[in-house]
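Structure tokens please, single chain.
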Amino acid sequence: MSVIDGSAVLPAPGRADLTAADRPSLIGPLDTILVDVFNVPDLGREMQVDASGRISMPLAGTIEARGKTAEELASAIEASLRGRYIRNPEVTVNIKSSVSQVVTVDGQVVEPGLYPVTNQMTLMRAVASAKGLAEFARQDDVVILRTVDGRHMAGLYNIAAIRMGVYDDPPIFANDVIIVGDSPQRRLFRDFVSVSPLLAAPLIAVVN
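Here you go.
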């Protein structure tokens, strides 16, 4: 592990870092999709998946979209249309925008888990999504793990310092892992920082 001298910003991930080759893009609540039905232009439309993970279409009715790939949802729409006036429907679904990509929030928060990432997600908002810090959480031990251009990186942050305006609330991206409190990842920094209630700036390091 090596700390990046002079860097107080954890670099943003590249496009390839935001997708996993072994994990196809899955549709989730509030994603926006484009649906086209071949030779039936009136049924083609852009729509948003509702908060419960469903879509509603004329003739097809209400269909579960959550957890399906675009191809799987297209097949489900075809199955619904096939029994409702269209003999051999051909449906194409494309994901136009996704807010269902997730960040992992773990450690000393009220509700650890996976939370959706939006364009405006920051560390403080991610912690708030997990219902905030646990009662005895260590605010000065917050690590963000991120893959940037294939490199595993880590940033050590102090939530109290962010709240006081000592430094900016860092942006959060899909596939980030946030760990609050003492952890193996936090202990990687032990050679670079003394125990202190506040950090003047985050520490950014390459883990491998």
